[in-house]
Structures are given as C-alpha cells and as structure tokens.
Amino acid sequence: AGKVGELADAQKRTEEELRQLAQAQKNTQQEVGGIANTLGYMLENEAYRLLPKVLADKHKIKISNKAIRQQIGNEEINLLAEGTRNRKPVLIVGESKTRLAAKDLTQLKKKIKAVESHYPFIAKREIVPVMVVHFAREKELQRAKDEGVIVIQSFEW
Question: Are 133 and 149 in contact (CB under 8 A)?
C-alpha cells in the first residue's frame, strides 16, 4: 500500500508540474503574440511616413491625403489612402506583414472587396493593392506581381 501511495503522490506532483508548464507556455505564447503585434504596428507606422515617397519615386503614385488604418466590417485595412497616378484618381489599399506569404495576398483581396463594398465612390477610382513587408521570397514576389500587387520591402526606404 505504501508504494501505491507514493506513486499516487508522484502522479499528483507530475500533474501539477504539467499544469504549471502548460500555463507558462500559454503566457509565453501571449507575450510572443504581443511582440509580433507590436512589430507589425511599428512597420505600419513606418509605412505611413515613408510609403508616399516610395510610391511617388518608384510607381508614379502621388498620395493626396494621409494614409490611415481603417476598420471595415470584420476587416482591418492597414493602409488606406487616396492618390493619383498619371493624373487619374486611385485608391491605395494596403496590408502590412513582417513576412509575405501567399495567404496574405488572398487576405488582401478580401480587404479590397470590403473597401469596394463600403465606399460607393470606388467605381471611379482604380484600386492599387500594396503589400508592405520586411521580407518576401521570390515566389511570393512573383505571385504578387502577377496579381498586380505592389510589394514594398522595408529596406527599400
């Protein structure tokens, strides 16, 4: 009976240690998520300041008002700004990601649809999709180019 009691006590200690470990892992995941969000917002904030010059210099797009972050329905639009290209009105709809992935391009399409349905004046403007990233692999850069998405990597400014 003594051995069984010892095993039961050891089992309880193990279960408590596993519970504590699981809680510590959950806390770590929350902290890492918070850091990732902070880095994402830092990239967006940098883009608000530096994107107008890059778009003007490399893509002949002049932003005519300040880029904003906008919530439309369930979609958070990271970069939304009016502008012109060759004197024609455009609307920049952008997303900011640390690293470009194929799913981000799909997500950007959903955001563009949300913008189109929310703003009735869009029919008169060309939408210019933009991805601002720290890094993109050649495969994603090519897909973005094929889909007409301007990708600006942070080292470009």
Answer: no
